[in-house]
Amino acid sequence: MTDRIASPWPTEQVVGAAQQGDPRAIAALLDGSHAHVRRFALTLCSTPEDAEDAAQEALIVLYRKIGTLRVAAALASWMFQIVRKECIRRARLALHATPAARVEPSAEDSALVRLEIERVVASIAKLPPDQRDVLVLRDLRGLSGAATARALGLSRAAMKSRLHRGRATLRLQIEAPQGASGQNGGEHA
Fold it and tell me: Are 131 and 169 in contact (CB under 8 A)?
């Protein structure tokens, strides 16, 4: 697969006609968007299968909700946000599926591992969205710093800053005694 995409995004006229329900314009819109959406999904999702599924999901959303797009020129940005959310959703599902995929030596060990994973996932979920998105893409999905910054529309410096704050906050939440994760969790910081 090459890095260049031969065809441009569908024109504003095609988008406008699709919003009016023109079947040919809808087909052209979906066909013209697929390569772009799939390419973006490949940079965010951990497997090609997840990327294709995320791209397909984004095209379904495009088909169903094209009428809600306010500015036709915002099509690419809108589609990238849909793909990004779908890839993050798939990453969360993968996190929850991890304990079931492992073979544990005992029921007690299995329960302890599951509790620890649940605690980490809950701590990640508590992060502010801007920090959580960077942390998930960079640390869980393994994207490079540049790819993470591009995916979220950030400068490298902003991405690094959010990642640092997210990691520091996550570390504090995980290292805090389990009883301190409630309302007085910040008293001993």
Answer: yes
